[in-house]
Every structure is written in structure tokens, then in C-alpha cells.
TrEMBL record:
Family matches, as Pfam families: RNase_P-MRP_p29 (PF01868)
Alphabetical list of InterPro entries matching this protein: RNase_P/MRP_Rpp29-subunit, RNase_P/MRP_Rpp29_sf, Rof/RNase_P-like, Rpp29/RNP1
Lineage per the UniProt record: Eukaryota, Metazoa, Chordata, Craniata, Vertebrata
Gene Ontology BP annotations: rRNA processing; tRNA 5'-leader removal
Name by which UniProt lists this protein: Ribonuclease P protein subunit p29
Assembly: Component of nuclear RNase P and RNase MRP ribonucleoproteins. RNase P consists of a catalytic RNA moiety and 10 different protein chains; POP1, POP4, POP5, POP7, RPP14, RPP21, RPP25, RPP30, RPP38 and RPP40. Within the RNase P complex, POP1, POP7 and RPP25 form the 'finger' subcomplex, POP5, RPP14, RPP40 and homodimeric RPP30 form the 'palm' subcomplex, and RPP21, POP4 and RPP38 form the 'wrist' subcomplex. All subunits of the RNase P complex interact with the catalytic RNA. Several subunits of RNase P are also part of the RNase MRP complex.
Length: 200
């Protein structure tokens, strides 16, 4: 076993290595009180950046034809079950569409609702050729609706300068496309004003 002098020398050497910034007098002062707190310099941990999963670009989506509907699929009858699902979705969203329901409450929920599967009609338009188009909304983009008509024709109708109407359980709602130029995902978080200017 080591003697007391060897142990003392070892402790002194160990403390000098552990606390190089401290003077010998200060170390001896600490030893007399028999309480030594060794300095510890923690290494800074470098945070690893999380890599975000990148989706397809707009060009890649066009090349892959992700949003194109094949001609053989462009049939009104195929999408009638989708319309029935949409009606059930709206009834659940509006708690049954009861006769005593307040119209502005239903209107507010319809403005934020997903319209894929809804039957809409173009009631007003600056372009007369769009007026009267009725069909099921198959796709909604920021600026256009893709609608399949009863004649099995796929129509691309711009939102700008068009007014659309949709009817469910006797409740008719009007959509002013010029104020509706948002993607469906963005629209659900937007706050719509109850009163606004109509530019059509």
C-alpha cells in the first residue's frame, strides 16, 4: 500500500491536471477543508439536423401524370357513390342539416369543407359558355374545378369570375369562385369574412 506522502503527491498531481486554471495555493486551501469539487467542462453536443422528406415537384407530378383521369374513367355513373359519401360527410359535419339549423353556420362549415364529390352548378359567369355546367367535382385545385357532367364530359372550370351553387337536403349554398381561390387543404384553415365585396 502507498504511504501517506505518495498519496498526497498523487492527489496534488491529479488536482493540478484536473484544474489547470487554479493556483497551487487555492488547491492547498481546498484540501485543508477536505472538500474538493473538480471542474468539468461538458462537450457541446452537436444536434443532428433532421432531413425533411422531399415530395415530388410539380414537374415530376406532371410527368408521372398523377392527377390525370383516364378517358375510360371519365364516366358520371362511376362517381355517383362518391357523391353519396360526400352527402353523408356533410350531414355529419353539419350535425344532420336540421330544418332549424342556422344558415350562416352551415355556410361557414361548407366554405371549409372538402368539395370532392359535391354536385355543383355554374349559376353566373363572365363567360356565358360556363353557365349551366352541372356535375360532380372530381378534383379541386387552387384556381380550377375539374367537373364530370352527366354527359360523361370532363370540364375544367376556373374559379375566377364564376359563381357556383351546390344543394344538399334543400339547403342551397353559393360559392363565389373569385374569393375561393385556395387549395382545399389551405381553405380548411382560412377564416372567411361573413360580408365581402362581390366583383362579378
Amino acid at each position: 500500500p502507498q504511504g501517506s506522502e505518495e498519496a498526497k503527491a498523487f492527489v496534488n498531481a491529479f488536482l493540478k491536471r484536473s484544474m489547470p486554471k487554479m493556483k497551487d495555493e487555492a488547491i492547498q486551501d481546498m484540501l485543508t477543508r477536505k472538500a474538493v469539487v473538480l471542474e468539468h467542462y461538458a462537450k457541446k453536443k452537436t444536434k443532428q439536423k433532421r432531413k425533411k422528406t422531399k415530395g415530388f415537384t410539380a414537374k415530376q407530378r406532371r410527368e408521372m401524370r398523377l392527377f390525370e383521369i383516364e378517358p375510360e374513367q371519365q364516366r358520371y355513373a362511376i362517381f355517383l357513390p362518391l357523391h353519396e359519401l360526400w352527402k353523408q360527410y356533410i350531414r355529419d359535419l353539419c350535425h344532420g342539416l336540421k330544418p332549424d339549423a342556422q344558415p350562416h353556420m352551415i355556410q361557414g362549415k361548407l366554405l371549409k369543407a372538402d368539395l370532392h364529390g359535391a354536385i355543383v352548378t355554374v349559376t353566373k359567369s363572365k363567360c356565358p359558355s360556363y353557365v349551366g355546367i352541372t356535375g360532380i367535382i372530381l378534383q379541386e385545385f387552387k384556381h380550377v374545378f375539374k367537373i364530370i357532367t352527366k354527359e360523361d364530359k370532363l370540364k375544367v372550370v376556373p374559379k375566377l369570375n364564376n359563381v357556383f351553387s351546390l344543394e344538399i337536403d334543400g339547403f342551397i349554398s353559393y360559392i363565389y369562385g373569385s374569393k375561393f381561390q385556395l387549395r382545399a387543404s389551405e381553405r380548411s384553415a382560412k377564416k372567411f369574412k361573413l360580408k365581402g365585396t362581390i366583383d362579378l
